[in-house]
Amino acid sequence: MGLFDKLFGNRPKPRGDYQGEFRLLNGYKPHFTSFGGSVYESELVRSAIDKRATHMSKLQVDVQGAAKPGLRVKLKHGPNAYQTWGQFLYRLSTILDVHNTAFITPVWDEYGEISGLYAPLPTRCELIQYGGVPYIRYEFAWGERAAVELEYCGIMTRFQYRDDLFGESNRALLPTMDLIHIQNQGIQEGVKSAATYRFMAQLSNFAKAEDLKKERQRFTEENFSRDAEGGGLLLFPNTYTNIKQVDVKPWVVDADQMKAIRDSVYSYFGVNDDILTNKAYGDAWAAFYEGAIEPFAIQLSDVLTKMLFTFREQSQGNRVIATTNRIQYMTNADKLAVTQGFADRGMATIDELREIWNLPPLPNGLGQKIPIRGEYYDLGDNRPITPVNGGNEQ
Hints:
Layout: H1 3-8, E1 18-21, E2 31-33, H2 43-56, E3 60-64, H3 69-77, H4 85-99, E4 101-108, E5 114-118, E6 124-130, E7 133-139, E8 145-149, E9 154-157, H5 174-194, E10 199-203, H6 209-224, E11 240-245, H7 255-269, H8 273-276, H9 283-308, H10 311-315, E12 319-323, H11 332-344, H12 350-356, E13 377-378, E14 383-384
Antiparallel strand pairs: 1-6, 2-6, 3-12, 4-5, 4-9, 6-7, 7-8, 10-11, 13-14
Helix pairs in contact: 2-4, 2-7
């Protein structure tokens, strides 16, 4: 039994008769295939995708509400038996950036109940219907297939336009990828050229073509054959004149053009040099969070909520939310200002304030108290606001 059986082995077979493909509004046959010209093979693109995925993996996934308490407990420890939340989120973000479509499928236990989540990487997907119910049928590289009801599958997309379910490919990035490839080839050829010696010379007193041929053969054997005794030193007879070295300068992209190429990749994936070199903090990191991490977190939260809870359960406050502590990426001066402001106004517990500074909670529940300064007054009766019950309430 392999991972495929663990993920899909407990899933009931599709109900009803196979009724063909499930048509979308534009009449398009919905299917997804992985893009052969993978952008992940480029060092620059891989670095951009890696940094995005690394920050996405810091998200904290929390299941809220009273419905499905067993699933809530299982997801608290990890998405499945094989991955941590960090590993799951990293791979999910990577798949989404490489293919612009990422699937999330439930993991079922032996009782047919959802016990976890997994992000498969199929080579092909198509939307079919059995008994009037739409299914997503995954096809993997080794030939296995698995069909799961669409309502239980999560689909995350980027650049979604023509397809009602799946995102576009990364073909728009191919011209930039070609330039990167040409630039790398130019650098390689430049290194090879620098390790070679070329020269040109003029021969005198040769009237016949066969004499010139013999002289070329003699020169090659005496200087470049295995039995040559020159010891790496080229010796020219006095019949050679105007001896000059040929200086070959390979063409490579200049600094401005290379910066334009890098900026094209950066704008496509929403990163910059500071993000790739771990120099972003404060407002710079906040901008990256709002432009890249927050949209991913919102889409992930909505997709997981729709997967795991019915509309009735969602209306009762059951949902999945992915968040991260943005304050941790502030400068120390900004952290100090936020900590003082929250503490003075009773807006956070001691443990929450300690978390801003990456400090552990206080033992014995001492950190659950809410501090507040004593000179604040309630405008209703002009009395000081005094913490009660040791600071747990205001």
